[in-house]
Amino acid sequence: MESAFSSFHVDKDFLSVIFDSIHDGIKIVDKDGKFIFINRSAEKNMNIVRDEWIGRSVHELLPESIILKALKTEVPQINKHSFVCNKNFIVHASPLTFKGKLVGAISTHKDEDEIESLKASFDHFTLNKYIHFLENELHRVQILPLEMKGFVVSKNSTIVNELSKIKKLAPTDISVLIRGESGVGKEVIARNIHELSNRIGNPYITINCAAIPENLLESELFGYEEGAFTGAKRSGKKGKFELANGGTIFLDEIGDMNYHLQAKLLRVLQQKELVRVGGEETIPLDVRVIAATNKDLVSMIQHNTFREDLYYRINGITFNIPPLRERKMDIDILISHFLKEFSYKYNKKIGISKEAHYFLLNHPLPGNVRELRNVLEHGFVLAETNEIEIEDLPKSITSGQIQESSSAPLFTSDEPVPLSTFFDSMDLSENIKKVEIALIIKALTKSNNNRSKAIKMLGISRQSFYERLKKYEKEIAQYSN
Ligand SMILES: Nc1ncnc2c1ncn2[C@@H]1O[C@H](COP(=O)(O)OP(=O)(O)OP(=O)(O)O)[C@@H](O)[C@H]1O
């Protein structure tokens, strides 16, 4: 779903997941009648290949369709009978308008046979149940975008302080530099700034300066004209800045941009206009710039690898996002947030065992929030019970480190918990504490909180058990019922 629909600011992959999980067929066309989305049910019950329809015109493919009528007349078409693809359907179609302008049309349809069989089987009771189901579905679909909008989840005081700035700076055009390691959530913040700004409704374009080969980055950013270089498209191409015109551009990994291009970028930002590569025409720009980096730009300036003038141009205000290891408190709420997200995405409810939870809290997670999300999603998908267990997490984090870093494993029992992966530092007493807490929690969990049984499992005296319980009261309480 592109163009006008990007203005709704709901992640398009996510929107596709929602629509694909809806039983009714859904089709969306843009204002010119081009198919921009067809959900899985529509593909199935119309017996078509949706990828072959996307981008093609409804005028050509379904000239008699109800969706085309809604688009042409700009009047909703409710409960209309339609015969397409050799089947009868009941269709609702509505024009889609945004900020008073027609941007396309949407239709939902049900197979008529299905409606007939539904009618036959509906008594009052089932009808009520069906209404209840639809209400739940509607609620689910309505709250999804909010849950998933990618708002920044954090309890960390540094981040909370930083975030409090967003509301103030978002409506201005001040440039923003976001600093932090990979995966800490820099893009989430950039998107939030755009969404809270007056530019909402206009494009939000991202480009990762490190991911594009140096020789292509210039034309990716500023576009090119026909024949600008070998392999250039006949018609030329708009660059990311032009695509972002009126909206926001997020320049990720700006520290990886070469010195020559930095000079060109600075010129574009200062003059608020650009000339495409190989072109002559000057294109005026109105783009808000948000940049991000993992690099120390100040030291790069000292080493003449980053331009000082560009640094001051992009650094109107700076956000510093600490890595996850410096805000362990956030792991808890991020886990809850992601479990909620996945339960919508996969349509099932799964929790996390205390051990897996504790494991994640103590795992280094160098890939920050992105790694936490990936690891949890892996566990969510593989979990065989209604809780993610340590065994469901990727082997790379539960066992990789042991094999690589210790020739003689400290624990060789049948423990599913590879305890030595907790040892992200050499501090002996800190590590002993972690092991003790993990084993006490495990014994309590296994014994259903029966302390006598837990003491027996641990093979320690009652006195020593209670001493430790007191000592680690806070940590254990967090994981006990
Ligand atoms: N505070 C947060 N709340 C909710 N989700 C978050 C948060 N921080 C990060 N995420 C999620 O973690 C993943 C990585 O975040 P993001 O892409 O913003 O990181 P980044 O710092 O821009 O990474 P990179 O520098 O590698 O591009 C995304 O799926 C994002 O939705």
TrEMBL record:
Keywords: ATP-binding, Nucleotide-binding, Transcription, Transcription regulation. Gene3D superfamilies: 1.10.8.60, Homeodomain-like (1.10.10.60), P-loop containing nucleotide triphosphate hydrolases (3.40.50.300), PAS domain (3.30.450.20). Residues 152-381 form the Sigma-54 factor interaction domain. It comes from the Bacteria. InterPro entries: AAA+_ATPase, AAA_lid_NorR, Homeodomain-like_sf, HTH_Fis, P-loop_NTPase, PAS, PAS-like_dom_sf, PAS_fold. SUPFAM superfamilies: Homeodomain-like, P-loop containing nucleoside triphosphate hydrolases, PYP-like sensor domain (PAS domain). GO terms for molecular function: ATP binding; sequence-specific DNA binding. GO terms for biological process: regulation of DNA-templated transcription. Residues 11-62 form the PAS domain. This is Sigma-54-dependent Fis family transcriptional regulator.
